[in-house]
Amino acid sequence: AGAHSNRVHENGVEREDCRAKGGAGGFKVAVLGASGGIGQPLSLLMKMNPLVSVLHLYDVVNTPGVTADVSHMDTSTVVRGFLGKEQLEDALVGMDLVIIPAGIPRKPGMTRDDLFKINAGIVRTLCEGVAKCCPNALLNIISNPVNSTVPIAAEVLKKAGVYNPKRLLGVTTLDVVRANTFVAEVVGVDPKDIDVPVVGGHAGITILPLLSQVNPRFSFTNEEIEYLTNRIQNGGTEVVEAKAGTGSATLSMAFAAAKFADACLRGLRGDAGVEYCAFVASEVTELPFFASKVRLGRAGVEEAFPLGPLNSYERSGLEKLKKELQASIDKGFAFARQ
Ligand code: NAI
User: Fold this and answer.
1) 33 is in an annotated binding site
2) Which residue, 206, 277, 204, 211, is CA-closest to 237?
3) How many Å apart are CA 52 and CA 59, to the nearest integer?
4) Mind listing the pLDDT tens digit for each residue in 191-233?
5) Which of 242, 243, 214 is nearest to 228 (CA)?
6) Phi/psi class of residue 145: alpha, beta or left (left: φ > 0; alpha: ψ in -120 to 50)?
7) What EC identifiers does the entry list (predicted)?
8) Does the annotation list 106 as a binding residue?
9) What is the ipTM of this complex?
10) From the CB of 141, is ligand 1 less than 6 Å away?
11) C-beta of 32 in contact with ligand 1 (< 6 A)
12) How many angstroms separate the Cα of 117 from the Cα of each of 55, 141, 246?
């Protein structure tokens, strides 16, 4: 940043912008797709995060309005807007964390894979920008189908010679957020006191909640297991149908993405014990990408934990999901290599 960028004008007075320095623990974060249904509330939540010193909002439409609006919130985070392809690089230079919720959402009757054609290209373009302008940033991929867009991002970064698997994360937090909510409802406790590991991927049967490993432990009847597993796997579709053609989950997704981004930033700061489920390059199973609980740290994904002991219901769910997940991963690879 040049000398000028730290000067601000307020009420006719020029002074040094102490906010832009970011101090200890101040991180620079970009949201790509910031004007969308997820992007707007996510931008609001990131403006409220004290770990974020600079927030860049990028989209191909409407960022001036979203930026002006969010910038009036009286928190110390500096907000800057970027509009259109020509400003993508400026949006990305110097970022510590890039969150990508750009792309079209589902309508009733669509699977996440139906979004592939459009969103694959969007994610590729945005990741080419990341590779060029902030190759060391952590990347949080929200755009669906996550099972394919994360492999696409990996291939784009590889092609550019900057791929670091520890820094690329597919956001599956909404699956965990839903699982915590639905399980809490069934057992009658506060959802904040529940942690449900959800592994595999982020679509239909590839979403595998491990109800035998809920913390704290609960025992469920077979009917409860069936009900909870189905509801967690189809939580996205529940919202898509309720919204009746106007989109998919945006508010709960923004909440989940903000939680996950905060965890990534706490990891980057060096906090101990930051553990979240995420869809990452993995050796936990034979699949090249897999969602499981990971430890977040200065390097990004410091460690992916093994799945632990599964019961027979979960083992069979795991076997079933592998084929679909592998096919989605391969589809992403094929797109990026063509
Ligand atoms: P939306 O349509 O409301 O917003 C998408 C935004 O992306 C729009 O503002 C659009 O202008 C922007 N955009 C399109 N092309 C772009 C480009 N090349 N560069 C930058 N921005 C671009 O959609 P919504 O509801 O916000 O969903 C976004 C994505 O998130 C969808 O793919 C959806 O499937 C996914 N999603 C993922 C979830 C997850 O758990 N990972 C949960 C819910 C949605």
Assistant:
1) yes
2) 204
3) 19
4) 999 999 999 999 999 999 999 999 999 999 999 999 999 999 9
5) 214
6) beta
7) 1.1.1.37
8) yes
9) 0.99
10) no
11) yes
12) 29, 17, 20
